Amino acid sequence: MIHRLCQSPRYFFEHLKDVLIKAGFIQSQADSCLFISENVICLVYLDDMLFYSANETDIDFLLEKLRQLKMNLKVEDDVFGSLGDGNRIELTQTGLIKRIWKKCELKDQTQSNTRRDRSMTSR
Which letter does DSSP use for residue 47 in this model? Predict the structure, then answer.
């Protein structure tokens, strides 16, 4: 049984990474749990994924693509309930923020608005 092995989380992450890359994402060098595609940003935490996009249809298209790649996804509630006040998400880890800004060349930007996000769990 693979789920009882101490290596299981690593095996799962490698599988998830491979699927995200097949779906058009690139893994960030600033943070290995950050994946970026042309229209969607994906953050991975254990078996949870947060998708962010300025356009909800881009997330819908991505979800269909991931299902075609045999990812069993469960759509959960809006992430703002745990990360923000309904209008914004505030990141407070300044070291991580600086590394992401530098890597993504976001020197002159202080915030970015998104209209839709979804929290996903791989099950």
Answer: T
